[in-house]
Structure to design on (393 residues):
């Protein structure tokens, strides 16, 4: 999941919430934890050298207390070692510089800092950092009636749109739910206004997303509720978070329209600004990764003797493109893909096309496969190359 975590810490209520979440994640994941605090330049209107020196001493004492408070909190919360750093300069620039230079894969920041100008809306620092940071960012919002740390995330709302980052966001939601013992609510939004883009998922695709998410959550041992809403994506997600009393929203930083953009998509930007709770915006990780950091857990598999019809049914139900075949010792001995089925069976159509068939037609094809004497061993590809979880990508 996350291996290097950075917290932007200024001592505000939101920053303290972010720090507690970071500490809890570091403790449970064995991740490295760092914090950065930013000292803004002294005002230019100081009249004398004495005033400048006095102000500098006061600022130094403030940040000394601030970093000590953060380290003490980490130590008391479970013996987590926190590396603190104080930078001098523009707040957004310094946070981004540390995030980029340290190759962190998660940045945590409070919803609001100590800025007086932005008291009634999301702080400009948090929004600008979220737009420009190269890694995933969690914007923490204090909740009066919730616990502290990851354990507060009992109801996790995740946007399901089928985009590359949407899939990573769903995996992150499952991972967090396992840590918190929470429930994942998967929301897919159908935008049906006259101005809706062609990339908006149609009804069939929406149900496929929900079915696949349900299967993945079941395999991961996470309680899952699927929700389909209609309307503008950002508004629908915020409304669902309020109606469902979500503790955390998890969303890909970009969606289907511009999946590879380096900045936030329009939906993510608006949800980050208006969310009633904390929000995690997921980006592709930049840190040194290992297989365990990106692999899907709770993978379905079949045995050598699994009937062909069951193989096809499982592929369709899980909405996956391949299934490993294991022997009696649970060793992977083969793999079955849609291409294998097309080449070595009477399936006739690729699975991606089969999913579009009417349910009655699909059932009839599965009955035909059930009469086949073939099993997984007859259609799988072998040998299979495997890698250990700690292999560097």
């Amino acid at each position: 999941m996350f291996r290097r975590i950075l917290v932007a810490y200024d001592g505000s209520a939101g920053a303290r919430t972010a720090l507690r979440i970071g500490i809890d994640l570091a403790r449970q994941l064995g991740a490295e934890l760092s914090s950065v605090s930013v000292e803004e330049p002294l005002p230019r209107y100081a009249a004398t050298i004495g005033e400048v020196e006095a102000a500098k001493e006061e600022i130094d004492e403030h940040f000394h207390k601030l970093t000590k408070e953060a380290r003490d909190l980490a130590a008391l919360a479970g013996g987590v070692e926190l590396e603190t750093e104080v930078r001098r300069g523009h707040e957004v620039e310094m946070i981004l510089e540390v995030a980029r230079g340290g190759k962190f894969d998660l940045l945590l920041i409070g919803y609001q800092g100590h800025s007086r100008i932005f008291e009634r809306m999301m702080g400009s620092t948090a929004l600008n950092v979220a737009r420009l940071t190269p890694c995933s960012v969690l914007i923490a919002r204090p909740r009066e009636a919730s616990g502290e740390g990851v354990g507060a995330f009992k109801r996790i709302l995740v946007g399901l749109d089928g985009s590359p980052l949407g899939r990573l966001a769903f995996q992150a939601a499952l991972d967090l739910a396992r840590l918190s013992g929470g429930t994942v609510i998967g929301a897919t939004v159908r935008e049906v206004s006259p101005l809706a883009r062609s990339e908006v998922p149609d009804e069939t695709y929406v149900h496929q997303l929900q079915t696949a998410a349900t299967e993945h959550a079941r395999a991961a041992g996470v309680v899952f509720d699927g929700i389909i809403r209609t309307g503008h994506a950002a508004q629908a997600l915020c409304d669902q978070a309020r109606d469902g009393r979500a503790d955390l929203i998890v969303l890909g930083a970009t969606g289907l329209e511009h999946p590879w953009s380096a900045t936030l998509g329009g939906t993510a930007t608006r949800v980050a600004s208006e969310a009633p709770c904390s929000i995690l915006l997921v980006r592709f990780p930049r840190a040194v990764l290992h297989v365990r950091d990106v692999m899907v857990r709770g993978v379905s598999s079949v045995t050598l003797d699994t009937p062909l019809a069951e193989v096809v049914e499982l592929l369709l139900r899980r909405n996956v493109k391949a299934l490993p075949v294991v022997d009696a010792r649970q060793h992977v001995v083969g793999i079955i893909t849609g291409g294998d089925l097309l080449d070595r069976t009477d399936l006739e159509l690729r699975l991606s096309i089969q999913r579009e068939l009417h349910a009655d037609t699909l059932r009839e094809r599965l009955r035909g496969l059930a009469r086949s004497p073939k099993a997984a061993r007859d259609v799988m590809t072998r040998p299979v190359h495997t890698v250990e979880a700690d292999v560097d990508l």
